[in-house]
Write a structure and sequence with these properties.
By secondary structure, the chain is an alpha+beta fold. The protein is 15% helix and 33% strand. It has seven helices and 25 strands. A hairpin with a 2-residue loop joins β20 (361-366) and β21 (369-382). The protein is globular and about 75 Å long.
Length: 442
């Protein structure tokens, strides 16, 4: 469904600045994702003159700026004119700081798009108006547009904005935008996707990107520009209401310590859920040993509680065998505060060229912990065209489906709808070491 974007008001001088917004651009091949980011950087004055000169070339009408080259940094990307890897760029306005991830549109690089989307606050999904037969009222959307929208929804990206691009290159831009917007709204309603806004833009000319189009209410649009919408979005809230879950990334040993009232090691990592504070009872997974937190250090080694989303160092009240990959989980009088299981029912976005077949074993990465996982069965595959759930014996590259996994050791998980951290795993092929799938616990 389409959520009307609230009017954006001028921030007062004494208002606290909003946290940096991390967003990605996604969509089909050559929809203008890199060009859009280049336009955002140039029109927001985030590009130095020598950088701008480096992406200019001689054209029929003089010097032409190729905005896509501001993000396509790999030599292969510049030679082929495509985006292969995720390119991150940073810029700021007077209202907000931004981190942009330019993701590839080719199907074979879907894994890179999934990686970037998993930590994004917003997805700007571009739709190329020149590729659609909008003259026909019942025209289909591009397959990759639908796939990326579904992946963004599965990955719980809080906001999605459709940017209908290249409307300056069609014969009737207002009718084209009206029909494309209606098709996107219908698809989003059918798939259960909440859309923040649908904006007509010309990334090449800069219309409705940073500045409004020169023609008032171009394409019949009366809303804010893309940048103004992004400035008003909220960040992904930290999962502080859940019990403490802390994946250990690094173990530091004190150089010398005669204090026997606490352990002699600091366990560093980023708090996944809840809050780490002194006095808490925790259980170490997978060993099952229990201890209390004696001290909590911030990233600058100040002693105070640390909430989810921030790095911390934890010192336990006694010596317990804890290594990289272990988890420290909140413990209550009744036992572990989070469910622990070897059997998972999950949605997978399959990204390996080799199809997924039941019975095959993979490495599963949960936090920093590796465990072996076997695909017990494929429950169904999602048809991205009809959104129907189909019976399947295997999942091909870029397919989305539901599977049952059996892990060699138990892990603490929550449904992905509750926790983007505890509910996410990655499957890796044991032989090729390629990332095979993104796993979202149901």
């Amino acid at each position: 469904m389409l959520v009307e974007h609230p009017a954006v008001t001028e921030a007062s001088n004494d208002a606290a600045p909003a946290a940096a917004l991390k967003f990605i651009t996604c969509g089909s091949v050559d929809d203008g994702k890199s060009t859009l980011i280049g336009r955002l950087l140039v029109d927001s004055k985030a590009v130095l003159s020598d950088q701008l000169a480096g992406v200019q070339r001689q054209g029929q009408d003089g010097r032409v700026t190729d905005l896509a080259l501001l993000t396509d940094g790999l030599s292969a990307e510049r030679e082929q004119g495509i985006t292969i890897d995720v390119a991150y760029r940073y810029f700021s306005t007077t209202r907000r700081k931004f981190i942009i991830g330019d993701t590839p549109g080719h199907e074979q690089y879907t894994r890179n798009m999934v990686t970037a989307a998993s930590s994004a606050d917003c997805a700007v999904l571009l739709v190329d108006a020149t590729k659609l037969a909008w003259q026909d009222a019942s025209f289909p959307l591009l397959e990759q547009t639908r796939r990326h929208a579904l992946l963004v929804q599965l990955l719980r990206v809080p906001a999605i904005v459709f940017a209908v691009n290249k409307l300056d290159a069609v014969t009737d831009p207002e009718q084209a935008f009206t029909r494309i917007s209606a098709a996107l709204t219908a698809f989003a309603a059918e798939a259960g996707i909440a859309v923040e806004a649908i904006v007509p833009v010309s990334a090449l000319k800069g219309w409705n990107v940073v500045d409004a189009a020169p023609e008032a209410h171009w394409c019949g649009y009366h809303g804010a520009t893309l940048l103004r919408i992004l400035e008003g979005l909220s960040n992904t809230p930290a999962e502080t209401a859940l019990p403490l879950a802390f994946p250990v990334q690094w173990v530091e040993k004190f150089s010398s310590s005669s204090d026997t009232s606490q352990g002699r090691r600091v366990f560093w990592g980023r708090v996944a859920t809840g809050k780490a504070e002194a006095g808490q009872r925790v259980r170490v997974m997978p060993s099952g040993k229990s201890a209390s937190i004696a001290r909590v250090l911030t990233h600058v080694r100040d002693e105070k509680a640390v909430a989810a989303g921030h790095s911390a160092g934890i010192v336990l009240d006694r010596e317990v065998d804890v290594s990289r990959g272990d988890w420290l989980l909140a413990e209550t009088d009744e036992g572990a505060a989070l469910p622990v299981s070897r059997e998972l029912n999950a949605t997978v976005a399959w990204m390996d060229d080799e199809p997924l077949v039941p019975g095959r074993a993979y490495w599963a990465l949960h936090g920093h912990r590796w465990v072996k996982a076997k695909v017990r069965r494929i429950v169904h595959r999602l048809d991205i065209h009809t959104l129907a759930e189909e019976d399947a014996t295997q999942l091909e590259a870029n397919a989305i489906g539901q599977v049952e996994l059996l892990l060699q050791d138990a892990v603490a998980t929550l449904p992905y709808q509750q926790s983007r951290t505890l509910g996410a795993l990655v499957l890796v092929d044991q032989a090729s070491h390629k990332t095979a799938a993104a796993v979202l616990v149901r």
